[in-house]
Amino acid sequence: MSVHHPERSPAETAGEGTPTQVRHEAFRRRTFAVISHPDAGKSTLTEALALHAHVIEEAGATHGKASRRSTVSDWMQMEQERGISISSAALQFTYRDTVFNLLDTPGHADFSEDTYRVLAAVDCAVMLIDAAKGLETQTLKLFDVCARRGLPVITVINKWDRPGKDALELIDEVQQRTGRTPVPLSWPVGLSGDFRGTLDPRTRAYTRYRRMAAGAALAETEVFAPEQAAELEGAAWTEAVETAALVAESNGAFELEAFRAAESTPVLFVAAAMNFGVATLLDVLVDLAPPAGPRPDADGTPRPVEAPFSGFVFKLQAGMDRAHRDHVAFLRVCSGVFHRGMVLTHAATGKPFATKYAHHVFGRDRETIDVAFPGDVVGLVNASALRAGDSVYVGTPVTFPPIPHFSPEHFQVARAVDAGRAKQFRRGITQLELEGVIQVLRSETRGDQAPVLAAVGPMQFEVVADRMDREFGAQVRLEALPYTLARRVIAPDPEVLNRIPGTEVLRRADGEPIAVFTDKWKLGRVATHAPEVALEPIGGDLD
Ligand code: G4P
């Protein structure tokens, strides 16, 4: 994959940062993520968006997983073997003088904690739905997470070129199950499986698509007035006009405030593999998606975009470049101008942090970044002191809200296979804990050589085992524990809970006592056996 450098504005080139310039740069940023249930076409759409914006010179001729492995966002060998994407990074491209920052999210539900961190760093989400499957488990969970963050969502119904559900049925599902009012901004002409083009319900213009060789080039489109469309498409056009009018009548016209307030969701019909409707999505992002705006700090006070530089870490990644054994901290810029080389203050410790090495990172591609504006993502190399959720700033101090943990549901004890590699084992576990790859719980009884790993999804254990072996030279033996629930303990003597069978009290690195339970009945026994103990969900309102 070769990357074109996005065109730089004069302010970017100069690295200037007058308040007006910073506001202007923030205003032309769109920072978003594409999220979906696996297989809905997230990777295909990412490529199609990039293709439209002319980032990827040579469009992947096919969109299959096999051909893509070496092109987009996969670098861990394990990811390649399994065809899943675990790591997050950002793709930057320009379109209509707008700078897009497309943040990558892992496709698999087991890494939902990583997805959540990415969603903390974006201003908008594009929710992709497979037209044949409708809303799936992960789709609903993600809609829920977006609702909790108050994040605007653009709903994109994909694979309309293939037989699937009825358009009205899909709109109804969104209406019934997401808590947002769907407002179609494009309506398909032709049933699913016979995708001829789209009607714009606002202007009634018809965009006709012409099939090209599989994904090899941009889709050819022609725009027609309604009268011509009726002549060209006959019954299919009349049907589209009538059903779109029905939806508009019941759900109302599109209103920007309702979309930005996460009350309604614009809906588009596309076929990402054919590049049908992809340009419309880019236009909707430019015209309607929120630009980078003032970010509230931990107390809820917004930091204006033109304030001195600030940002927060939403993702840590180590071992991307094995030759250098580096740790990259991905930072979302919240205010001001980032200049490579500037010295930041790390809010958690008050210590200075030098930024000699800063990159745009997407998959295997890296490009040194010299200047970044609000909404942009900066990959800071050798940032092992930074943790996910940490804030950094220049000048006026700021701490952005912490990113909450998810409640783990899977627990395994880890031990070094070779007792002689205890040092490497400890170093590796600590590093993976710091990156947020896994939560680590310890107790005096179990000892440092046998920590309990706590995960949201079991595939996280595979990542730990793989990285411990490859990066830290410490093969691990994992042994499953029967626990399924975890709660934070608030009590003068948390260890009293150890007396309840099927319950164990462990400590997080920050000293917080965490009780784990085999099932909800054991958890229920706390009230009778230790009424003085209070339990709190780990993920706060996420549980
Ligand atoms: P994901 O990242 O969300 O997991 O999905 P991905 O893009 O890998 O797409 C999943 C499958 O859906 C792929 O098929 C892809 O080609 C197909 N797909 C994506 N968008 C469209 C579309 O608009 N129309 C149709 N018909 N198919 C689409 P695959 O079986 O993994 O690869 P392939 O052998 O079909 O190329």
Count of DSSP strands: 31
How would you state the average pLDDT, rounded? 85
Low-pLDDT regions? 1-5, 55-88
Residues in helices, as a percent range: 25-40%
- Based on Cα principal axes, name the global outline: globular
Helix/strand/pairing category: alpha+beta
The small-molecule ligands in this entry are: guanosine-5',3'-tetraphosphate
Strand content: 25-35%
Round the Cα radius of gyration to an integer and report it.
25 Å
Put simply, the count of helices is: 15
From the N-terminal CA to the C-terminal CA, the straight-line distance is: 40 Å
Biggest sheet statistics? 8 strands, antiparallel
Which tags fit this structure?
alpha+beta, 543 residues, disordered N terminus, binds guanosine-5',3'-tetraphosphate, eight-stranded antiparallel β-sheet, 15 helices, globular, single chain, 31 strands
Structural overview:
With 543 residues, the chain is α+β, with helices and mostly antiparallel strands. It has 15 helices and 31 strands. The protein has an eight-stranded antiparallel β-sheet with strand order 18-17-23-14-15-22-19-20. It has a seven-stranded mixed β-sheet with strand order 2-3-1-4-5-11-6, sandwiched between helices. The protein has a four-stranded antiparallel β-sheet with strand order 7-8-9-10. Helix 3 crosses helix 12 (278-287). The structure holds guanosine-5',3'-tetraphosphate. Guanosine-5',3'-tetraphosphate binds at residues 36, 38-44, 62-65, 107, 158-159, 161-162, 271-274. The site of guanosine-5',3'-tetraphosphate (G4P) has 21 residues, from helix 3.
